Every structure is written in structure tokens, then in C-alpha cells.
């Protein structure tokens, strides 16, 4: 049952990815009038856009999936340990069908602005029609074929930003880009019809997770592959494989325990965290532990000991072990050295999970170029120039990352009481619990900055925030409250807590997108809460039980 007919909607949700979909389901179930806007033509968020060859999740799919509905988790079968993008998008579509979500989602609609009206205590939501082509530059279904809610304004009591952490691509501008006569593709909005790279000469700029997966997937089919690497990355093997019926049945039987363990863990998925510092162990014990973790594969590698992210020498032991694996996999020792990260602590930049990445450089037609010493200078009509050398290629792939964590929020023109959110966050995000920002009442963020978000299994963080927001709005309705705001002093403390926790670790030492270091001019602030998912959940539940400490209601 709805509470308020003076607005178009009780709640507007921005984004129809995994966060927005679940938020819609929960709020609708609780009787709120809800509308979701998304610029894409379909649900799925990041898994809608990132269709590049080899795109695949880096957290096991039996963990990277919704836990909120027992029937859903029992009926869905993951084919592989780490599902590929088409399967994850199919899962998102299945969820949308199963819970009849699409009827409350306006696709092809971009939220341009949000303005808070203190008199009416409502948000005005400004939207515009978004052709898929015009949103992120990706081709897709033409806008006129799709019902949308663009070019209009709407009012809502609450707005939930479910805009994702890695959804605004960073597009470096190289001189001469317009001169390039070949095909230019971004991994972040890969053409929906695919790109045939068979027998073509391809350049890839960027060697983060997207670049590494793309390079591995396309190497064999290209005639020549020129990779421009500015910073090498640590990559842990995925050991991806098809799941057997027995494995799937065992997971389904144990889902309750698996989900509980995920929620009780630091990363939001079971990583079998070590309980002692590396310094307590002999070299043989350390090697045995790292061998076992390497054989298991995945991001749990860095959780072997408790001091990996606080003690530079312990971190270096894990880093050197990972470099040794590169040397074992790459035939040319000089290439192996160029592929070996040395300029930042392991895991202070997001580690990658790979399937045969380093071996690609043993192929004679794959060439690695050091873009730190020989940067890409310009594009030309026939390719690009780097370090004074011209490279002729048919296709250039940009795998150059995202304006992470804040980009998708600050690109919306959000104002309240004469204050703009983008201005407020000019020197870094300021939030209370990553859920609200002072001065912007009734505006909630799912996996916002200063919450664990990207340092965790996103599905666990999403479900926690969505459930918390649903509880908050339901409680407010029961108590006849219509306005909630973060207290400025609570926000100041939370920002300090975040800085203190990150500062006590090695995390800020990497020039990472966690720090905003990949975006020219962006303030360098460590943006996610680095104290672990379980700690964060405990803190939020504690403040909530303490009469919603840090929030002000009216
Ligand atoms: O982006 P990135 P991504 N000239 O920022 C380089 C998630 N994800 O899309 O490191 C030359 O990591 C840049 O160099 P540097 C995951 O959380 C997950 O790959 O800044 N190079 C870097 O090498 C991941 O961490 C999955 O020196 C330039 C690359 O481009 C996050 O998304 C898959 C440049 C960007 O790497 C982002 O990953 C994909 C320039 N001007 C993504 N500008 C999985 O689940 C940038 N670079 C597996």
C-alpha cells in the first residue's frame, strides 16, 4: 500500500543493474510506488554494456548471484565456475522476467538531474531520451522502438542511486583520434553485434581486467596484436571450468551456509582468510600456503595472511611469488620482466583473474609495448604512433577503465538547497556510511563511496544496502516520517574513519582507480571503505540499532 499520492512516485531508482532490479523488487513488495530509469535498452547494468570478448566475472558465480529468493537460487544453473558475460546477462533477464520487473522500468531514459524542493520535500527528477548509441557510444536498439520516459520531469519522495561503481567509461583523448580510418572500440560499450577480428591487425590500449580478458580472448584470431601497457597488473589464475551436476547440486544443498559465510567474510565471499601474519611463518610454510592458494585460484590469494595489506615486506613476498609465476609462463625473460608489476603493492590496484593471459605473449604475432616509457602519442589515419614509432592497425581497442565510484553520481546534476553534489564532492566523496550525503535529504546510494562496494563481492554489498534502505523507508512510513538526512558531524566522522582505515594499509600506495588516480584532475582520495564487509555490516547495524545514530528525521 502506498503512502503518498502528492508525488508521481514514492521512490525513483536510477539504474536497472543488479542493485536497481533488487531495489525495485523489494520496495514494490513493500507497497511503495516505484519507477526505475535506465539509459540502456535492457536490465543488467555493467553486464549490459561490457560485452567485450572474454568478459567474465572474477568472483565465482555461485557467490556472485542473488541470495534473496530460495526458489531463484534453486532453479538457476551456472554452467561455469566463473560465468561469462552472456550468461550473467541472461541471468539478469531471467530475474527481470521472474519478478515481472520490466513493467516499472523506463529504459532508454537517462536521468539528467535531480533537484530537491524543501517546501514540498520532494525530488524532481529530470530525464531525457537516451538512444543506446548516445549513452555510452554503444550501438543498440534504436530509441524510437523502445518505450521510454525521456524528456520529462517526475516527482518522488525518495531517490535511490543504483548507478553502479564502474559505469562511466574514461575515454582518454589522443590527438588525431578523428583521423583514424579503422575501427575504434571501447571495451566498456562493445558493439552489440560484435566485431570480427579474424585476420585483422589490432591494437589494445590498457591492461586492467578488461584489457587482460580481451587480449586473451582475441589473440589467437588476430593477424597481429599490439598491446600498449602503461602499468603491468597482478593476475591470479581463474582455473575456470565447467561445473558438474554434482557440484551444482552440492552448492544448492549448501546455499544457506554459503550465503551466511559470504556475509560474515571480509570480501563478501569465502576466501579462507589466513588468521596469522606472514611474519609468524617459515619460508616453507609460506610457500606451501601460496602454492595452495595459487592452485585454488581467484582473488583469495591476497588473503593468505593477516598482514599482506599492512606490512610492505609481507606484501612483497606474495608479489614476488606472483612474478615468479609470470616468469614460468612467459618464454622471453625480458617480456616476463615487462609484464611484472613492481611499482605498487600487490592488491593496492585491483588484481585480475586470468585464463592463459601471460601465455599469449609467447605467440609470435603478439607484441607488448611499454606505454610508460613509450606513450601513445597520437592516432594516425592508419593506426597510432607510440614512442616515435608508427603502428599500422585495422582496429584500436580502448580498455582504459572508468571514472569509478563517483563518476556515475556526479555526472547527474544533483542539487539541494543551492548546493550541487558535484561541487560538494570536488575534493573527494563525503558520505555517511556510503548511504547518504549531508545536505541531500531522501537521497540514498546503493554501494556508494565510503562503503565496501568494489572491495567486496558486489552482490553481497548490494543486497545489504537494498535491504537496509527498504527497512529504513518502511520504518519511516510506519512512524509517519517523510524526511531523512545524514548529520554533517556523523559524515565528518565517517570520512575520517575511512581515511584512517585506508591510511593504515598499503592500499593508497597504488595509483589506482580506487584513488581516482586514473582520471586526470580527480582528487586522490581512497574511495571504498577498506575495513571489510563484515566490519562494515556490523557498524551499520550497530548505528541503526542505536536509534539510527547519525541520521536526522522529520
Ligand atoms: O579498467 P582499469 P578495467 N594511455 O582502470 C590504462 C572491474 N572489472 O576496465 O594502470 C595508456 O583497471 C591503465 O593504465 P594505468 C574490476 O573491478 C572486472 O580494466 O592507469 N593506458 C590500465 O592499464 C576492474 O578493476 C572484471 O597506468 C591507459 C587500463 O587502461 C575494473 O572493472 C572485468 C590510459 C585501465 O584499467 C576496471 O577494469 C573487467 C592512457 N591514456 C572489469 N588510460 C571481471 O570481473 C588508461 N590506461 C574480471
TrEMBL record:
Signal peptide: none
Similarity comment text for this entry: Belongs to the FAD-binding monooxygenase family.
Name under which the protein is recorded: NAD(P)/FAD-dependent oxidoreductase
Cofactor(s) it depends on: FAD
Keywords: FAD, Flavoprotein, Monooxygenase, NADP, Oxidoreductase
Species whose genome carries this gene: Brevibacterium salitolerans
Flavoprotein among keywords: yes
Keyword Oxidoreductase: yes
InterPro entries, sorted: FAD-binding_Monooxygenases (IPR050775), FAD/NAD-bd_sf (IPR036188), FAD/NAD-binding_dom (IPR023753)
Cited SUPFAM superfamilies: FAD/NAD(P)-binding domain
Name of one Pfam family that matches: Pyr_redox_2
Xref: PANTHER family: L-ORNITHINE N(5)-MONOOXYGENASE-RELATED
Domain FAD/NAD(P)-binding: 9-253
Origin superkingdom: Bacteria
Amino acid at each position: 500500500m502506498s503512502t503518498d499520492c502528492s508525488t508521481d512516485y514514492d521512490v525513483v531508482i536510477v539504474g536497472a543493474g543488479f542493485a536497481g532490479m533488487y531495489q525495485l523488487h523489494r520496495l514494490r513488495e513493500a507497497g511503495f510506488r516505484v519507477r526505475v530509469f535506465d539509459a540502456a535498452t535492457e536490465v543488467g547494468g555493467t553486464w549490459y554494456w561490457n560485452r567485450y570478448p572474454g568478459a567474465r566475472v572474477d568472483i565465482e558465480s555461485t557467490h556472485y548471484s542473488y541470495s534473496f529468493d530460495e526458489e531463484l537460487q534453486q532453479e538457476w544453473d551456472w554452467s561455469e565456475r566463473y560465468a561469462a558475460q552472456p550468461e550473467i546477462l541472461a541471468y539478469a533477464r531471467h530475474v527481470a522476467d521472474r519478478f515481472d520487473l520490466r513493467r516499472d522500468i523506463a529504459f532508454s531514459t537517462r536521468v539528467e538531474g535531480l533537484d530537491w524542493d524543501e517546501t514540498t520535500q520532494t525530488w524532481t527528477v529530470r530525464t531525457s531520451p537516451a538512444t543506446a548509441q548516445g549513452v555510452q557510444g554503444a550501438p543498440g536498439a534504436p530509441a524510437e522502438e523502445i518505450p521510454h520516459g525521456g524528456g520529462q520531469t517526475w516527482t518522488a519522495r525518495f531517490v535511490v542511486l543504483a548507478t553502479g561503481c564502474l559505469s562511466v567509461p574514461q575515454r582518454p583523448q589522443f590527438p588525431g583520434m578523428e583521423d583514424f580510418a579503422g575501427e575504434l572500440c571501447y571495451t566498456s560499450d562493445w558493439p552489440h553485434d560484435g566485431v570480427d577480428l579474424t585476420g585483422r591487425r589490432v591494437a589494445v590500449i590498457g591492461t586492467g581486467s578488461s584489457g587482460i580478458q580481451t587480449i586473451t580472448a582475441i589473440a589467437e584470431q588476430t593477424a597481429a596484436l599490439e598491446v600498449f601497457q602503461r602499468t603491468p597488473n597482478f593476475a591470479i589464475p581463474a582455473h575456470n571450468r565447467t561445473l558438474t551436476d554434482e557440484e551444482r547440486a552440492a552448492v544448492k544443498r549448501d546455499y544457506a551456509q554459503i550465503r551466511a559465510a559470504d556475509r560474515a567474510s571480509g570480501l563478501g565471499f569465502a576466501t579462507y582468510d589466513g588468521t596469522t601474519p606472514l611474519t609468524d611463518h617459515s619460508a616453507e610454510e609460506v610457500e606451501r600456503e601460496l602454492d595452495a592458494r595459487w592452485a585454488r585460484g581467484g582473488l583469495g590469494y591476497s588473503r593468505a595472511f593477516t598482514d599482506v595489506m599492512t606490512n610492505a615486506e609481507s606484501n612483497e613476498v606474495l608479489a614476488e611469488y606472483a612474478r615468479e609465476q609470470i616468469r614460468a609462463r612467459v618464454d622471453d625473460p625480458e617480456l616476463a620482466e615487462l609484464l611484472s608489476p613492481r611499482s605498487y603493492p600487490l592488491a593496492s590496484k585491483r588484481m585480475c583473474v586470468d585464463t592463459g593471459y601471460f601465455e599469449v605473449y609467447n605467440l609470435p604475432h603478439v607484441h607488448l609495448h611499454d606505454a610508460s616509457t613509450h606513450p601513445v602519442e597520437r592516432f594516425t589515419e592508419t593506426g597510432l604512433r607510440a614512442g616515435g614509432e608508427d603502428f599500422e592497425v585495422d582496429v584500436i581497442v580502448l580498455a582504459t577503465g572508468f571514472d569509478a565510484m563517483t563518476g556515475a553520481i556526479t555526472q547527474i546534476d544533483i542539487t539541494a538547497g543551492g548546493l550541487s553534489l558535484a561541487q560538494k564532492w570536488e575534493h573527494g566523496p563525503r558520505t555517511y556510511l556510503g548511504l547518504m550525503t549531508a545536505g541531500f535529504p531522501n537521497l540514498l546510494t546503493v554501494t556508494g563511496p565510503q562503503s565496501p562496494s568494489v572491495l567486496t563481492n558486489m552482490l553481497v554489498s548490494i543486497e545489504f544496502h537494498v535491504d537496509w534502505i527498504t527497512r529504513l523507508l518502511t520504518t519511516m512510513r510506519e512512524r509517519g516520517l517523510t524526511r531523512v538526512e545524514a548529520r554533517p558531524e556523523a559524515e565528518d566522522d565517517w570520512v575520517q574513519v575511512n581515511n584512517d582505515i585506508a591510511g593504515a594499509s598499503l592500499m593508497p600506495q597504488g595509483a589506482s582507480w580506487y584513488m581516482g588516480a586514473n582520471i586526470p584532475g580527480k582528487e586522490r582520495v581512497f574511495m571504498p571503505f577498506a575495513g571489510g564487509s563484515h566490519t562494515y555490516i556490523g557498524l551499520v547495524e550497530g548505528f541503526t540499532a542505536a536509534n539510527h545514530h547519525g541520521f536526522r528525521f522529520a
